[in-house]
Amino acid sequence: MHTSDLRIALFSGNYNYVRDGANQALNRLVGYLLSQGASVRIYSPTVENPAFEATGDLVSVPSMAIPFRPEYRIPLSLSRSVRRDLEAFNPNIVHIASPDRVSRKAVKWAKKQNLPVLCSVHTRFETYFRYYNMSFIEPVVEAWIRRLYRKCDALVAPSESFAQVLRQQRMNYDIDIWSRGVDRGIFNPGRRDMEWRRGLGMSDDIPVIGFLGRLVMEKGLDVFSDTIDQLKRRNVPHQVLVIGDGPARAWFESRIPDAKFAGFQVGADLGRAVASMDVFFNPSVTEAFGNVTLESMACGLPVVAAKATGSQSLVEDKVSGRLITPGAINQYADALQAYCVNADLRAEHGSAGERRSHDYSWDAINQTVADTYLRLIRQHAARAIAAR
């Protein structure tokens, strides 16, 4: 069996209606699989005006807007029409990418059809509640997710550090790595544009600390702003550039009023914005990989990040950046201060990160997922023969 023989039914809670690192990775995967001759059918909530055009054939599943976060939608059911479409497509493997109700129904359907199931894990969903004063729910959510993941034949995680967390949580014992790639045509040091930076009112000779990501509290906006406050108290020369948008933008703007907010950027404009920073600061602990961290490294920036899943697999402490205990404001400030006052250190660690980014090729990375599909199909067939 070859990649071209694959027929994959992919279930995603958000395939293209809001842009994020997870669904961009899924779209890249589908594009690669289609280029190799595989057949893919995607089942996901849809909206009238999605953030970007979907790669592949997308089937809409019934959904509703999430209360208080209406930009996101909850998949509700594997409706009769969706089931008919799924049966007509006749997949030989099912891939789920979010632990929602429809994914659970898809797993149940796959088991009845005697099909293997792969689950790709993109974020630490259970940690989100920490940012909304509901951390007491985390053990319940973890157990709820475990019940689903243990029904899957295997998981793929974007980093070894995250895979280890999943093993410790007893989510599954067959876990492969589906890393992430970086488009070096977009993200590279040559994209640096001081004229663009000056257009935002930023000085050439004062270091720029950058933030890149969706502006939601679970990205560590509170830690970021508290750390910037600490730098101000220390009289450390710095400027702040924020790339991205989201429901917490007004709150973030009020907390760091001197920062420049460049809004949502994409493609070459995004590469230019990242390369025009001097240091990248990522205090989030929710990412399973950290696409933004890799993109910043590819642009030659030193990275100050939380010592958490994702960043630990990318950043080498005191070589390409600093890994800091999550929430340790003074330690974050110490690390950023060192980069702000020492241009040679910035250049040395930025160059090390840029060299490291060359290891991440999208085609090779996506082929590992195709290889995992093929392995699971072979194993499933072998078990069926043994059972007979």
TrEMBL record:
Q: Name one Pfam family in it.
A: Glyco_trans_1_4
Gene3D superfamilies in the cross-refs: Glycogen Phosphorylase B (3.40.50.2000)
Which GO molecular function terms does the record list? glycosyltransferase activity
Where in the numbering of this chain does the Glycosyltransferase subfamily 4-like N-terminal domain appear?
A: 20-183
Q: Which UniProt keywords apply?
A: Transferase
Tell me if Transferase is a UniProt keyword of this record: yes
Q: What PANTHER family does its record include?
A: SULFOQUINOVOSYL TRANSFERASE SQD2
What name is this protein filed under? Glycosyltransferase involved in cell wall biosynthesis
Source organism lineage? Bacteria, Pseudomonadati, Pseudomonadota, Alphaproteobacteria, Sphingomonadales
